[in-house]
Amino acid sequence: MTSEPTIVLIHGAFADAASWAPVTRRLLDKGRAVLVPAVPNRSLIGDSEYIRAFVEQIDGPVLLVGHSYGGAVITVAGAAENVVGLVYVAGYALDEGESLGELQGRFPDSDLAANLVYTPFPSGAAEPGTDVSVKIDAFPAVFAGGIPLETAQVLAVSQRPLAAAAFGDAAPVAAWKTTPAWGIVSADDHTINPDVERFGYERAGMRAVTELAAPHLAMIAKPDEVVDVIETAFAAVS
Q: CATH number of 6-110+168-237: 3.30.9.10, 3.40.50.1820, 3.40.50.460, 2.60.40.10?
């Protein structure tokens, strides 16, 4: 196994791998090995199994970084043996047996719930279900606040929905209990109540928590600061 970890960036709901582009560019410029897989966004259990399988195929240690719902995914997928560190960016640090809905419900004050759209899966889908997305006209303010409007509008019409079932899946494991973790709180978050982030990080006993005056998409609004935290974690686990 190589000594330096591969940094694997996991996107959240209502976004895709491109949401990590500013951070990915900076990490590549530093000579880091970086991978940014697409998350199916179908269920917490299924998505975590998919990312864990992806991670386990990497030859060497892995530093997993998760944004938003991606934080829940790395909480479970991070149980892979070659994961040496976790970084949460405005993320859900679930406990074992806890769901997204339960953690969000502790601090429900956010603008997201009132601006969601529920769309049944297409009739040809293998299994019935419902996709959840953010109202396109509300997306810039609720999800992409602090991002230039022309960029936010593109993100709004290209968002990757999350299956409603993902909100109810309970995490079967919490990798932060055995793996060092770092957290970033987006203090100006209107998608997740920042107290959800603070609570999860404090409960996890993370090595360091950084508060940024940033919106939910901190990796687009404050990429240099996000990279600094990733680099701190990278140095600690290398």
A: 3.40.50.1820
